[in-house]
Amino acid sequence: MRFFGLLAIGAGLVSAAPIVSDLAIPAASELSSRQAGSACFIIGNTVLPKETSDFVNQLRPRITCNNSRRTLSNVPDVTSDGVSFSSINFATSSQAPLQFALSRFATPTPLRSANLAQFQRQLDVYIATEAGIRSVNGNLAIKVPKFFLQFQISRIQTAQGNPPRAAGLQVNHLLEKVLKNSPRESQLHEQVRALARTLA
Ligand SMILES: *[C@@H]1O[C@H](CO)[C@@H](O)[C@H](O)[C@H]1NC(C)=O
Prior knowledge:
Blueprint: H1 2-23, H2 25-38, H3 50-59, E1 63-70, E2 76-80, E3 83-84, H4 97-104, H5 116-135, H6 143-159, H7 171-180, H8 189-197
Antiparallel strand pairs: 1-2, 2-3
The protein binds 2-acetamido-2-deoxy-beta-D-glucopyranose (NAG).
Protein backbone atom coordinates (compact mmCIF):
# COMPACT_ATOMS: atom_id res chain seq x y z
CA MET A 1 0.00 0.00 0.00
CA ARG A 2 2.72 2.39 1.08
CA PHE A 3 4.94 1.32 -1.78
CA PHE A 4 2.10 1.92 -4.16
CA GLY A 5 1.64 5.41 -2.81
CA LEU A 6 5.31 6.25 -3.42
CA LEU A 7 5.08 4.98 -6.97
CA ALA A 8 2.10 7.21 -7.57
CA ILE A 9 3.97 10.22 -6.19
CA GLY A 10 6.96 9.35 -8.34
CA ALA A 11 4.81 9.10 -11.43
CA GLY A 12 3.28 12.46 -10.61
CA LEU A 13 6.72 14.05 -10.38
CA VAL A 14 7.82 12.55 -13.67
CA SER A 15 4.78 13.77 -15.52
CA ALA A 16 5.06 17.22 -13.93
CA ALA A 17 8.72 17.62 -14.85
CA PRO A 18 8.36 18.52 -18.55
CA ILE A 19 5.78 21.20 -17.72
CA VAL A 20 8.12 22.86 -15.24
CA SER A 21 11.09 22.69 -17.57
CA ASP A 22 9.07 24.17 -20.40
CA LEU A 23 8.53 27.25 -18.31
CA ALA A 24 11.68 28.32 -16.53
CA ILE A 25 14.21 25.52 -16.23
CA PRO A 26 15.76 25.20 -19.72
CA ALA A 27 18.07 28.21 -19.52
CA ALA A 28 19.22 27.31 -16.00
CA SER A 29 19.84 23.62 -16.73
CA GLU A 30 21.67 24.51 -19.91
CA LEU A 31 23.82 26.89 -17.93
CA SER A 32 24.54 24.39 -15.15
CA SER A 33 25.59 21.69 -17.57
CA ARG A 34 27.79 24.17 -19.41
CA GLN A 35 29.38 25.19 -16.09
CA ALA A 36 29.68 21.64 -14.80
CA GLY A 37 31.28 20.51 -18.02
CA SER A 38 33.60 23.47 -18.18
CA ALA A 39 36.04 22.84 -15.35
CA CYS A 40 36.59 20.30 -12.58
CA PHE A 41 36.54 23.00 -9.87
CA ILE A 42 33.09 24.39 -10.79
CA ILE A 43 31.05 22.26 -8.42
CA GLY A 44 27.82 24.25 -8.29
CA ASN A 45 25.27 25.91 -10.51
CA THR A 46 25.34 29.51 -9.33
CA VAL A 47 25.83 31.79 -12.32
CA LEU A 48 29.39 33.13 -12.41
CA PRO A 49 30.15 36.81 -13.11
CA LYS A 50 31.43 37.23 -16.67
CA GLU A 51 34.93 38.13 -15.48
CA THR A 52 35.09 34.89 -13.46
CA SER A 53 33.85 32.69 -16.31
CA ASP A 54 36.42 34.31 -18.62
CA PHE A 55 39.13 33.35 -16.10
CA VAL A 56 37.70 29.81 -15.87
CA ASN A 57 38.06 29.40 -19.62
CA GLN A 58 41.68 30.56 -19.50
CA LEU A 59 42.53 28.39 -16.49
CA ARG A 60 40.80 25.18 -17.48
CA PRO A 61 43.73 23.71 -19.47
CA ARG A 62 46.23 24.47 -16.67
CA ILE A 63 44.30 23.20 -13.62
CA THR A 64 43.88 19.68 -12.28
CA CYS A 65 41.58 18.72 -9.40
CA ASN A 66 42.05 16.24 -6.58
CA ASN A 67 38.52 15.19 -5.68
CA SER A 68 39.65 13.24 -2.63
CA ARG A 69 40.96 16.42 -1.01
CA ARG A 70 38.53 19.30 -0.51
CA THR A 71 39.37 22.87 0.50
CA LEU A 72 37.06 25.89 0.84
CA SER A 73 33.30 25.39 0.31
CA ASN A 74 34.06 21.77 -0.61
CA VAL A 75 35.91 22.77 -3.81
CA PRO A 76 38.40 20.04 -4.84
CA ASP A 77 42.04 20.87 -4.21
CA VAL A 78 43.33 22.44 -7.44
CA THR A 79 46.87 22.31 -8.81
CA SER A 80 48.60 24.44 -11.44
CA ASP A 81 51.96 23.10 -12.62
CA GLY A 82 52.90 21.61 -9.25
CA VAL A 83 51.38 24.30 -7.00
CA SER A 84 48.35 23.08 -5.01
CA PHE A 85 45.86 25.41 -3.38
CA SER A 86 45.99 23.29 -0.21
CA SER A 87 49.69 24.12 0.18
CA ILE A 88 49.03 27.89 0.21
CA ASN A 89 45.53 28.01 1.68
CA PHE A 90 45.17 31.18 3.80
CA ALA A 91 42.23 29.64 5.66
CA THR A 92 44.31 26.90 7.25
CA SER A 93 46.81 29.47 8.57
CA SER A 94 46.61 31.02 12.03
CA GLN A 95 47.15 34.44 10.43
CA ALA A 96 44.41 36.76 9.20
CA PRO A 97 44.06 36.82 5.38
CA LEU A 98 46.04 39.99 4.60
CA GLN A 99 48.71 39.18 7.17
CA PHE A 100 49.04 35.72 5.63
CA ALA A 101 49.27 37.17 2.11
CA LEU A 102 51.92 39.72 3.08
CA SER A 103 54.18 37.06 4.57
CA ARG A 104 53.47 34.11 2.25
CA PHE A 105 53.40 36.07 -1.02
CA ALA A 106 56.23 38.50 -0.29
CA THR A 107 58.41 39.78 -3.13
CA PRO A 108 62.24 39.80 -3.11
CA THR A 109 64.57 42.77 -3.49
CA PRO A 110 65.14 43.74 -6.20
CA LEU A 111 61.53 43.23 -7.26
CA ARG A 112 62.47 42.32 -10.85
CA SER A 113 64.21 39.16 -9.56
CA ALA A 114 60.84 37.71 -8.45
CA ASN A 115 59.73 34.39 -9.95
CA LEU A 116 56.77 35.63 -11.99
CA ALA A 117 55.76 32.12 -13.15
CA GLN A 118 55.52 30.91 -9.56
CA PHE A 119 53.32 33.89 -8.58
CA GLN A 120 51.17 33.13 -11.61
CA ARG A 121 50.67 29.48 -10.54
CA GLN A 122 49.73 30.63 -7.06
CA LEU A 123 47.22 33.09 -8.55
CA ASP A 124 45.84 30.36 -10.85
CA VAL A 125 44.89 28.12 -7.93
CA TYR A 126 43.43 31.06 -5.99
CA ILE A 127 41.29 32.14 -8.94
CA ALA A 128 40.17 28.57 -9.66
CA THR A 129 39.19 28.04 -6.02
CA GLU A 130 37.37 31.39 -5.92
CA ALA A 131 35.43 30.39 -9.05
CA GLY A 132 34.49 27.09 -7.41
CA ILE A 133 33.36 28.91 -4.26
CA ARG A 134 31.28 31.33 -6.35
CA SER A 135 29.63 28.39 -8.12
CA VAL A 136 28.12 27.32 -4.77
CA ASN A 137 27.62 30.85 -3.46
CA GLY A 138 30.20 30.30 -0.71
CA ASN A 139 32.15 32.69 1.50
CA LEU A 140 34.46 34.98 -0.48
CA ALA A 141 37.11 35.79 2.14
CA ILE A 142 39.53 34.38 -0.46
CA LYS A 143 39.28 37.70 -2.34
CA VAL A 144 41.86 39.38 -0.08
CA PRO A 145 44.80 37.02 -0.80
CA LYS A 146 43.59 36.68 -4.43
CA PHE A 147 43.69 40.45 -5.00
CA PHE A 148 47.01 40.61 -3.18
CA LEU A 149 48.52 38.04 -5.56
CA GLN A 150 47.22 40.01 -8.55
CA PHE A 151 48.72 43.15 -7.00
CA GLN A 152 52.11 41.45 -6.55
CA ILE A 153 52.08 40.17 -10.14
CA SER A 154 51.26 43.64 -11.42
CA ARG A 155 54.20 45.07 -9.42
CA ILE A 156 56.56 42.36 -10.70
CA GLN A 157 55.48 42.86 -14.32
CA THR A 158 56.02 46.59 -13.90
CA ALA A 159 59.50 46.05 -12.42
CA GLN A 160 60.34 43.64 -15.26
CA GLY A 161 59.41 46.24 -17.87
CA ASN A 162 56.05 44.74 -18.91
CA PRO A 163 53.43 46.69 -16.94
CA PRO A 164 49.91 45.30 -17.46
CA ARG A 165 47.77 47.36 -19.85
CA ALA A 166 44.26 46.54 -18.60
CA ALA A 167 42.84 49.15 -16.24
CA GLY A 168 41.74 46.44 -13.81
CA LEU A 169 45.29 45.14 -13.48
CA GLN A 170 47.06 48.40 -12.63
CA VAL A 171 49.00 48.41 -9.35
CA ASN A 172 46.97 51.23 -7.82
CA HIS A 173 43.65 49.71 -8.85
CA LEU A 174 44.58 46.39 -7.23
CA LEU A 175 45.92 48.23 -4.17
CA GLU A 176 42.44 49.69 -3.67
CA LYS A 177 40.87 46.23 -4.09
CA VAL A 178 43.13 44.78 -1.40
CA LEU A 179 42.46 47.66 1.02
CA LYS A 180 38.71 47.76 0.43
CA ASN A 181 38.32 44.04 1.08
CA SER A 182 40.38 43.96 4.29
CA PRO A 183 38.84 46.63 6.57
CA ARG A 184 39.54 44.54 9.66
CA GLU A 185 43.27 44.54 8.94
CA SER A 186 43.68 48.27 8.44
CA GLN A 187 46.79 48.27 10.66
CA LEU A 188 48.54 46.55 7.73
CA HIS A 189 47.33 48.94 5.04
CA GLU A 190 50.32 51.27 5.20
CA GLN A 191 52.59 48.28 4.55
CA VAL A 192 50.59 47.44 1.41
CA ARG A 193 50.64 51.10 0.29
CA ALA A 194 54.41 51.08 0.65
CA LEU A 195 54.62 48.06 -1.64
CA ALA A 196 52.51 49.89 -4.22
CA ARG A 197 55.20 52.60 -4.26
CA THR A 198 58.01 50.06 -4.60
CA LEU A 199 58.02 49.16 -8.29
CA ALA A 200 61.70 48.41 -8.92
C1 LIG B 1 44.83 13.63 -3.47
O1 LIG B 1 44.51 13.79 -2.11
C2 LIG B 1 44.71 12.63 -1.31
C3 LIG B 1 44.15 12.93 0.06
O2 LIG B 1 44.79 14.02 0.67
C4 LIG B 1 46.19 12.27 -1.34
O3 LIG B 1 46.41 11.13 -0.57
C5 LIG B 1 46.63 12.07 -2.77
O4 LIG B 1 48.03 11.86 -2.82
C6 LIG B 1 46.28 13.25 -3.64
N1 LIG B 1 46.55 12.96 -5.02
C7 LIG B 1 47.37 13.70 -5.76
C8 LIG B 1 47.51 13.28 -7.18
O5 LIG B 1 47.96 14.67 -5.31
